[in-house]
Write a structure and sequence with these properties.
194 residues; alpha/beta; SAM-dependent_MTases_sf
């Protein structure tokens, strides 16, 4: 297929902005696929921080990282992504090259436990503030579950409100598929010197 999936687009953008030695954050661990991807991007000289409110997600991610030999450069938090500013080291502020979020519920988990607009927006505001110039925020938006459309709308409305002189925002979705997931990519612009 020539047209990239949202997962492929997210990973391409993140990889381009997250070289070895970088700091990255997975805001929703899920089954650990993005955490492992980020750990491979940053390498042993970088660091990844991961968040999830479900212990099962933390355990699955820990196992995936350990089996791949990528556990040493990752810190996992059994906590909501809206606590990023409280749990990350202060020296990471302004130095994080990538944030990845997959909203919705834990695949093969409890579908009643979903991300919520209020905590997601708080996490995204923090991410935008803590992002390094040239860094990327990737948000996969899923609307096929109760609460998903409302959260997606809240996130897109927030992204639309960002000042274009500070952030570039792109939104990708297949428009001929009902309730297709979509991808929001946000890049923090590099400040021009006067």
């Amino acid at each position: 297929m020539i047209l990239p999936s949202i997962l492929s687009s997210a990973r391409t953008a993140v990889k381009a902005s997250c070289p070895p030695g970088s700091i990255a954050v997975d805001g929703t661990l899920g089954n650990g696929h993005d955490t492992l991807f980020l750990a491979e991007c940053v390498g042993p000289s970088g660091h990844v921080y991961g968040f999830d409110i479900q212990q099962a997600a933390v355990e699955r991610t820990d196992t995936r990282l350990s089996e791949a030999g990528q556990r040493k450069q990752v810190t996992l938090f059994h906590a909501s992504h809206h606590l990023i500013a409280e749990l990350l080291p202060r020296e990471a502020k302004g130095r994080i090259r990538a944030f990845m979020f997959n909203l919705g519920y834990l695949p093969h988990g409890d579908e009643q436990v979903i991300t919520q607009p209020d905590t997601t927006l708080e996490a995204l505001r923090t991410a935008a503030d803590w992002l390094a110039p040239g860094g990327i925020i990737s948000v996969a938006l899923y609307t096929g579950h109760p609460g998903g459309p409302e959260e997606a709308t809240a996130v897109i409305d927030w992204a639309r409100s960002l000042p274009p002189q500070d952030y570039q925002v792109m939104w990708q979705q297949m428009i001929n598929r009902n309730k297709a997931p979509s991808l929001l990519l946000l890049e923090k612009r590099t400040k021009k010197r006067a």
